[in-house]
Hints:
It is globular, with a radius of gyration of 17 Å. It has helices at about 15-25, 35-45, 60-70, 100-130, 150-170, 185-190, 195-200, 210-220; strands at about 5, 30-35, 50-55, 80-85, 130-135, 175-180, 230-235, 240, 245. α2 links the parallel β2 (about 30-35) and β3. The strands form two sheets. A seven-stranded parallel β-sheet has the order 3-2-1-4-5-6-7, sandwiched between helices. The protein has a two-stranded antiparallel sheet with strand order 8-9. By secondary structure, it is of the alpha/beta class. Helices cover about 40% and strands about 15% of the residues. It has eight helices and nine strands.
Amino acid sequence: MTKTAFITGATSGIGEATAYEFAKQGIKLILCGRRLHRLTTIKEALERLTDVHILNFDVSNKEAVKTAIASLPTDFKHIDILINNAGNAHGLDPIHNGDTEDWDAMMDINVKGLLYVSKAIIPQMTARKSGHIINIGSSAGKEVYPKGNVYCASKHAVLAITEGMRVDLNSYGIKVGAVNPGMVETEFSKVRFKGAEAADKVYTGFKALEAKDVAEVIYFAVSRPPHVNIADVLMFCTAQANSVTVNKSL
């Protein structure tokens, strides 16, 4: 039976790359994001490969999440795979100079948004006693680095939630895992470093991960046999050893 995947943050970066990877494998797609024009463009590109439905909403808006998921047509209501990818990073300020609006944005989307979407979808998985959830974390959820404070906190929360989900959903046979990339050169980076020029400087001198690299690992995880669950993946580009050690001569 053809599986259906629900992907948040599908308008760019890892979410978009995952949509393309899943479409190549014939997985039906529900693509979610805040930019309707991007969703429409991606839908048109992928419909030659698989069935695609788009939902235009903000994961940090609890009521919008409920309304959007309740609106799914019959052919897309059965969700087998949930990819909680929507996330953001704002600012690189030390904690005492941090912008509280940046803090709110990161916690609202990275943590609360993941919870709102999961809460709306998990009940159907527990009812069927099947399903697979992949939460997209970050190496920032494994270690804290200078000026990473609240972003790192949000991604530590993603890992804690993932582990809690895996325990609570174990008796239902639902797989839960996290994929945690290090440095990935995407639009996400331009937001974090507040401009393309600043982001480009960060990635100069070495080959960072690309979104498609992460998407391939996500597909590997969801394509394992029923008895195999990839619980946690930390992935770096070859040049990166940890959050602060990057060989810029590669």
